[in-house]
Amino acid sequence: MEALQVINLTKHYENVRAVDGISFNVKKGKICGILGPNGSGKTTTIKCISNLIIPDSGKIRVLGEDNKKSLNNIAAVFEGTRNLYWRLTPRENLRYFAGIRGLGGRELEKEINILLDRFNLTDKKDVVVNNLSRGMQQKVAIAMTLICDTEIILLDEPTLGLDVQSHLDIKNILIDVSYELDKTILISTHDMKLVQDICEDVVILSNGKIVAKDSIEKLFDMFKTMTYEIVLTECLSEEKKSSLMKLNRAFYIINNGSKLETDILNEKDIYRIVDDLKNLDIFIKEIKQKEQNFERVFLSLTAGEVD
Amino acid sequence: MKKYYYLIKVSFERTFKELIRYKFNTISNIIFLYALFMAMFLGLKSFGIDFGVSPLDMGSTLEGFIIGYFLWAIMMMTYSGIAYGITNDAGRGTLEQLNMSGISLYIIVTIRGLSDLVVDIMVSIVLLFIIMFTTGHYLEIRILSILPPILIGIVSILGIGLICGGLAIIFKKVNSLLDIIQYFLIAFIMVSPKNKFVYNLLPFRPSSDKVMQIILGGQTLKDFTINEYAIMIGNSLLYFILGIIVFNKSVTYAKRKGLLGGY
């Protein structure tokens, strides 16, 4: 069953076409990622679904109903440290945001306790949000979407600016929320690792258009290449870098020129690469095959449009 | 109906919690209003009060001035609460959350404005007693008599707050305009146009008149005619409805232009 349907959505700002006739669906209980370079239309799409931006044309359906009539089925957390009242505690914030949706009573208080416990915020329930860490604030914001008891949760850059532990916590929370609570989650992000780890489906936008939409697995299959990392004996000089760029092969120069990465379709190609490098007097210290990386799939799809 | 009950409940809870947690702001507001009053009061006293102004206007009497200031303080706090409340929410991103609640945004901000109003009236009454104590000019304050005209009249100020809040959503940096309007509110209490129609059209003016008549003229609620009540209610409804229309149009415009919350 489709929880969310975006049909031919278009939005212009003055002469800029932010979103250009995009269509995609998200199945109930699934996590879908929206990826794209800056300015590709991710946030505009999320805000159109949330009814914070009125599109020029197109339709958005939530559980088959127009999104404007089903706001009680959409909750969202937007980018950054916004979304919450900083001088209220997590408990008071949850109570307030449930209250403005017309929810309250003893059952709600029980739900708040369960959520605070689930998010390991029980011991912080009476601390004002202003005094919580960035990771905890983000947990409270996500808890806020859950207390509203909506079918769909929209998250705009949920892991932006988080440390490693908070990133991991948020990732686990989202998996937990999707599987255990059967919520449909749409995530707009630059975080490829998050998408690779938790999303079943992905929509990739570029210049307001969809350049790919499919399951993560199928997108990996579509770009089935082997990525090799080549560690060099010394950093590449500018002259060697430019010679390298003249070869008929894409190299990603990393670590200030001490490493190269390249994608190959055929294993025999690695011997040709070794020969090419030898001819340029570039000496190899080590060669290793890398795991397939969604970032590379994304870069291939958006073809250098990443900031 | 129950959903509005919860909305009102959490709005009051938030107002009181923030009043306590932003205590520096709360106390400095009271001190500012008190200091401003004392400066004006002492100035008025030292220059004498022979300006030939009608007793029901700013007051050729110091009592009239005190009550005029009290009404302005309520108006100013109500207006600020709603207009700055919207700009603050837009600035911190919570306006987007309010807009997604499924309850119309103008209802949420109006109910919040009303909860702020209750606090404002309480603060204003405290301020009034401090002023009376300091100046030695004691007024016979019949709270239950002055509350109905204040509550009716303040609805017009909620409307003006909604208009300014709507403009703030679109134009963002309108703090200067919001500040100026606070002081324009003084005119609504002081100015007495000869033309009765214009007089009755000024926001809050019919109600502030009645409060003056109760406190200074010794009148009671029973002394006012149905017509006078109708003018008070009509005046408030006019500005409140205008406020809702402008606010809703502004929100729709902001949504079309992608301006909602984009500070």
TrEMBL record, chain A:
<dbReference type="InterPro" id="IPR027417">
    <property type="entry name" value="P-loop_NTPase"/>
</dbReference>
<feature type="domain" description="ABC transporter">
    <location>
        <begin position="4"/>
        <end position="232"/>
    </location>
</feature>
<dbReference type="InterPro" id="IPR050763">
    <property type="entry name" value="ABC_transporter_ATP-binding"/>
</dbReference>
<dbReference type="InterPro" id="IPR003593">
    <property type="entry name" value="AAA+_ATPase"/>
</dbReference>
<protein>
    <submittedName>
        <fullName>ABC transporter ATP-binding protein</fullName>
    </submittedName>
</protein>
<dbReference type="GO" id="GO:0005524">
    <property type="term" value="F:ATP binding"/>
</dbReference>
<dbReference type="Pfam" id="PF00005">
    <property type="entry name" value="ABC_tran"/>
</dbReference>
<dbReference type="InterPro" id="IPR003439">
    <property type="entry name" value="ABC_transporter-like_ATP-bd"/>
</dbReference>
<keyword id="KW-0813">Transport</keyword>
<keyword id="KW-0547">Nucleotide-binding</keyword>
<dbReference type="GO" id="GO:0016887">
    <property type="term" value="F:ATP hydrolysis activity"/>
</dbReference>
<keyword id="KW-0067">ATP-binding</keyword>
UniProtKB/TrEMBL annotation, chain B:
<keyword id="KW-0812">Transmembrane</keyword>
<feature type="transmembrane region" description="Helical">
    <location>
        <begin position="105"/>
        <end position="134"/>
    </location>
</feature>
<protein>
    <recommendedName>
        <fullName>ABC transporter</fullName>
    </recommendedName>
</protein>
<dbReference type="InterPro" id="IPR051784">
    <property type="entry name" value="Nod_factor_ABC_transporter"/>
</dbReference>
<keyword id="KW-0472">Membrane</keyword>
<feature type="transmembrane region" description="Helical">
    <location>
        <begin position="229"/>
        <end position="247"/>
    </location>
</feature>
<feature type="transmembrane region" description="Helical">
    <location>
        <begin position="146"/>
        <end position="171"/>
    </location>
</feature>
<feature type="transmembrane region" description="Helical">
    <location>
        <begin position="24"/>
        <end position="44"/>
    </location>
</feature>
<keyword id="KW-1133">Transmembrane helix</keyword>
<feature type="transmembrane region" description="Helical">
    <location>
        <begin position="64"/>
        <end position="84"/>
    </location>
</feature>
<feature type="transmembrane region" description="Helical">
    <location>
        <begin position="183"/>
        <end position="202"/>
    </location>
</feature>
